[in-house]
UniProtKB/TrEMBL annotation:
Residues 89-101 have a biased composition (Basic residues). SUPFAM superfamilies: 4Fe-4S ferredoxins. It comes from the Bacteria. Residues 80-108 are annotated as: Disordered. Pfam families: Fer4_6. It comes from Anaerosolibacter carboniphilus. Coiled coil: none annotated. Residues 5-34, 35-64 form the 4Fe-4S ferredoxin-type domain. This is NAD-dependent dihydropyrimidine dehydrogenase PreA subunit. InterPro entries: 4Fe4S_Fe-S-bd (IPR017896), Corrinoid_activation_enz (IPR052911).
Amino acid sequence: MAVRKIVQIDENKCNGCGVCVPSCAEGAIKIIDGKAKLISDNLCDGLGACLGDCPMDAITIIERDAEEFDEEAVKVHLGQDGKSASQHGHQHANHHGHHHGGGCPGSQMRMLNKSAQSTAVVGEGDVEIKIKSQLQQWPVQLMLVPPTAPYFEGADLLVTADCVPFAYPNYHLDLLKGKKVVVGCPKLDDVAFYATKLTQIIKMNEIKSVTVAFMEVPCCTGIVRAVEKAIGDSGKSIPLHRVRIGIEGEASKF
């Protein structure tokens, strides 16, 4: 036994989705009684390949007394699960080379190629203007983005209530351009979770500024409170810009 880095799973946050299971190349995590559990300390290498794949942010790396990581035990364990050592080696290389998005191909973290992004044509009659998408990264859902995503480092962060892009016609050029974005619904999702996730993003990265765009409806102010709490809890002094969008599409800053 020695003090080392190892995975810790918060069962209060875990929803049992199982996304983390295939993300662990060593097979150290299983769903038991509807919750993800670390089944043996010596199967966990403590590198955290499963961290960015948890949509509930229930997995962290801590330091505690634990058995040493045992590569031979992993091989035996994977053999019992019907996986060969060669399969393990391939998975280990894949997962520790790409720590995020392995559980679901659609949520794999990536930067977008701006030269390949589509354009939209706006205007009437003889006057047409092409607007290029300003989205720089994927995913955008706050529930899915890993706090350690490299695109957050040195970024201007845009926190958007998910109705805003539908109501505000110039969302890409006025709000999204030059920023990294996270999106959520304070009415349907857990605002306390939002605050915690945003706090982690701000603490773990040098965020230059935060803009929060929200709708004029009362329930939407929850995302503003989450952002304000996150900045306060982070202990950092970061410029905060609030942009309220009306249902008819008008924007006001305060």
